[in-house]
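Field: COMPLEX_INPUT
Field: COMPONENT_COUNT = two
Field: RESIDUE_TOTAL = 297
Field: MODE = joint
Values follow.
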Amino acid sequence: MPDLDMSPYAAFVWPAWAVSALVLGGLVAAAVAASRRWARALRTLEREARADRETAA
Amino acid sequence: MMFGLANPERFMRFSAPLVPWIWALAGVLLAAGTWLAFTAPEDYQQGDTVRIMFVHVPAASLGLMIYGALGVSSFLSLVFRHPLADAAARAAALPGAAYTALALVTGSLWGRPMWGTWWVWDARLTSVLVLFLFYLGYMALRSSIEDEAKAARAAAVLGLVGLINLPIVKFSVDWWNTLHQPASLLRAEGTSLAPVFLWPLLTMMAAYGVLFLALWLTAIRTEVTRRRVMSLRARAAWSA
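Field: COMPLEX_OUTPUT
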């Protein structure tokens, strides 16, 4: 079973893991958000371009 | 095959089915590494602070390797003027900076109880700080020049210059007397780590590596999509 009693170093071990989790989680969230934002922008532009072509035809 | 994948269209087709699997593998490895890190025994000298090593060493190693990837991509971007190489360099900068910052912060959190200080200006710590500043400089330079082609070239030159720092970081503990301990994992005479600490460390290193791969591929794909959007917007503005 995991050993979660970090004494007497809990004030150093838990912040090290917490800051790692926060930073890695932030990187993942930022990458996924940027990916979705630009994919949505591309879909919108392609839809508009298709509509323009159909109107012209 | 590598040159074939340098075509953005082909890269997007090839990477699309791979990326979700790489994200999943990173998640599994992170969970396994965390479990192993907290089921490992205390070290007889370091006590529970040995568990900081399972997040510090992977962050430090990857911070160094990612800069290597940024430097090689910068070289390919400068020599071949290939947009995908430039996208790869750009996409490596943020995760590289974040990993290096984590190495500095977690190292400091380990140093305080073990060395009695948060920071010393020894060769290893200082050269890693310089590595972090190269990452920041790369990102700042890119965002400070409006013309994307000029920004890419200037940043690529800075990326290449920063490669000089990599052997200094790696061999600083051999070339100078440092408070930071010498290499214990990658040594000519083999690792000095006991298996109870080696396996959690290797698992966390694999987790950090695969996570970077997922972040990198996702960011390169995003950059290719962003450039398509910008080009479509420019075309629409021109024809309007």
